[in-house]
Amino acid sequence: MAGTKHDLDDKDMEETTISPFMPMFELFRNELDEHQDRRERIIKASRDITALSKKIIFSLQRVRQLCSPIPPPIAKEIETRYDSIKEFFTSIAPDLQGSNGWRYQKQISGGCQEYVEAISFQHYLETQTLITHQEAQDLIPSGIELTVDDYVLGLFDLTGELMRFGITSMATNAALPRGAATEGNGEGRDILVDLRSLRTEFESLDTSSSSSDWSYLKKDIEKKIEVMKQSVEKVENAVYGMIIRGRERPKGWVPDLNERQERGREVVESY
After folding, report:
1. Model confidence pLDDT, tens digit, residues 212-262
2. Helix H segments across the chain?
3. Cβ atoms within 10 A of the Cβ of 134, count?
4. Among the four residues 51, 115, 177, 230, which has the most C-beta atoms within 10 Å?
């Protein structure tokens, strides 16, 4: 038996349109749309900040002396990139106010860590010291909070750049980079001493206790600490090889960092 079709009369239509649930779900829809748009803006800005920070690091790897001003051509090159990074930070600052700063912390975290890596590398080249959390925060436009975890994880990545800087210097100058001479240290402190100090300090971080302030960093730190140790060991092995084999090497000689591997040789990155 065929069903009977009933047309909605004006009264039924009116009851449907004035349903109390419709405004509520429209509000939910608008909030979700705003959230998605805000999230995409932050992700895009973070990627752009990461890319520009990497380019700054590549430029800084052309520096060959510690405790000296950045050479003018390189300084001019990185200045424009710093300006662009600050514009990206400023553009998303309104999206990271209040509780949104923590809501989207994961989305901006990658850009902040790479930026810390870049500014800490430049700071080290100029002063042979670590940039402090407050100094790093001061280099970020107002409205963007640099969390302690992003600062620490950015310093972990710094060890990789110090390794590349040290290896490149050994390949071109047959010597480790050294800082300016100080009282009681006529030759200055070399980069390996600093890398070992960083390794000691990083290894002392306690992430095992649930009550520790660093407990939420445990997963990331466990990954980065292994890479950090490998970076320090690469410089140590290169120095050992240079001392044992002698210093009579042609310019451009690259230390073999993987003698323990069968006929293996690692390509040393230089910029």
Report:
1. 455 557 778 888 999 999 999 999 998 888 777 755 556 666 656 555 444
2. 10-17, 21-60, 72-92, 100-103, 105-127, 133-138, 148-173, 191-203, 218-245
3. 9
4. 115
